[in-house]
Amino acid sequence: MGIGRRHRASPAAPLVLLALLLAATGCESTPDARPAPGAAAPKSAARVCAAPAAGPATAPAGAVTVDPAVTGDLAVKTRNSPPRTTFWLRPGTHTLPADRFAQVVPKEGNSYLGAPGAVLDGRRTNQYAFGGAAPDVTIRHLTVQGFVAPHDEGVVNHDSADGWVVEHATIQHNSGAGLMAGARQRVRANCLRANGQYGMNAYKAGGTITGLVVEGNEITGNNTDDWERRRPGCGCTGGVKFWAVDGADIRGNWVHDNRGAGLWADTNNNDFRIEGNVLESNDGAALIYETSYNAVIRANTIRRNNWVEGRRYADRGDTFPFGTVYVSESGGEPRIRARTDRIEIHRNVLENNWSGITLWENADRFCNSPANTSSGHCTLLVKDTARCAQPAIAGPPLYDDCRWKTQRVDVHGNRFVLDKSVVHCTVKCDRMAVLANYGTYPDWSPYQGERVAEAITREQDNRFFDNDYVGPWTFVAHDPSRMLDPGQWQGTPYQQDAGSTFRARDGG
């Protein structure tokens, strides 16, 4: 899938909500002003990697014991045992045969439990740890490391089988993605650390992932192979990437110090609840919600994100307001079934990030446009992509339905704190934005000129209100050239942030 992250043209368990309201700590930039990694976890964050929960010290009744001294013992015993067998891995380092395609292929309902100190190590030789199509597999208390999955592929649940439960595992130091995802997958209380591309890649070839839960994990230090530098513009990096997921609960995770974005939902995702997470010190945006629909983003603590990527764009003279929460061609859509019909961003605390929230729409990005970096994909409202062509695209309903629209976004009840001395910047790190580009491409586009900029700013029901701003915030509306102070932002014609407060510093 292609990615259009930048402006290319110019019901589950009870909620775990954080009750953190942070006190305020009170661009030309310095290149080394990145927050130091390895800081202590916030009080309510998922502290997993430093002290993972220990597995059973003895084999459960009826379990098959796996011996680390026997190379490939886990794969052989899995092959020779019936479905729904429980395997207990003894303490020690377990290995597979020295064949890059050697892997464990579970049967339906199998469970894999690691004893304290049990490690499955790919020795930089095997590509995959657990694969195959069997549903309802469980992996608990096991460290999986040293596998070399190719780009965009994953080590655990390589084939995106459905119904897997991965809990209290440490998945680290692998190439590719540490973990793939299938429908009804539960990913809880894991350490997803220092994998080459993603901690998890929620992608299912040829299908949609439904009912995904990602809860209480620590997701840190991923994209060690720095794929955006190796393939500029690939949009293929970060802590977790979501593709075509319909129904996800992402809650209570500590997502920090990833190279790239922390959480990134890209291309026809729908019905997300992202709540109670701590997203901090990621090189790029804390959260990107792109070409997707219908989400609630609430009660998250978001701090010190986007210092590296935001600074990089600023230092090369880019004027785009690249926010730490970046809503790109995404909005509420009542015609697509979900638990909400809007994107609601509320009750979050954003502190000392490189800029705040950006609502963006690329006028040149729509179905069948060469500028659609999600190449081959169309909106969820159009089944036959070929319909999005002249002359039909110029009129209803295709004029609206062939374009991913940033619409019906409510940003309210949030606290935005910025101290430029903490971020080490003087300009370009202080912006909130609602904007689009001037449509130019292709020559048959019905969205040329200022049509989309006018729509996102005034016609598509995007509203900021009842927020609390502390620090020297500025605002961008319509297009990158229109820089506004709070009074202009609140005044005619934009009329944003009714009921909001603006203070130079906390406490007056």
Strand order of the largest sheet: 1-2-4-6-9-12-15-18-21-24-27-30-33
Low-confidence runs (pLDDT<50, min 5 residues)?
1-39
Total of DSSP H or I helical runs spanning 4+ residues:
7
What is the CA-atom radius of gyration, in angstroms?
A: 23 Å
Q: Outline, from the CA principal axes?
A: globular
Helix proportion: under 10%
Largest sheet: 13 strands, parallel
Strand percentage, roughly?
25-35%
Structural class: mainly beta
- Can you count the beta strands? 37
Give the termini separation: 49 Å
Average of pLDDT: 91
Short description:
With 508 residues, this protein is mostly beta strands. It has seven helices and 37 strands. Residues 160-314 form the Carbohydrate-binding/sugar hydrolysis domain.
Overview of the molecule:
Keywords: Repeat, Signal. It comes from Streptomyces zhihengii. This is Right-handed parallel beta-helix repeat-containing protein. InterPro entries: Beta_helix (IPR039448), Carb-bd_sugar_hydrolysis-dom (IPR006633), PbH1 (IPR006626), Pectin_lyas_fold (IPR012334), Pectin_lyase_fold/virulence (IPR011050). It holds the Pfam family Beta_helix. The strands form three sheets. Strands 1-2-4-6-9-12-15-18-21-24-27-30-33 form a 13-stranded parallel sheet, with helices on one face. It has seven helices and 37 strands. It is mostly beta strands and about 500 residues long. The N terminus is likely disordered. About 55% of the residues are buried. It is globular.
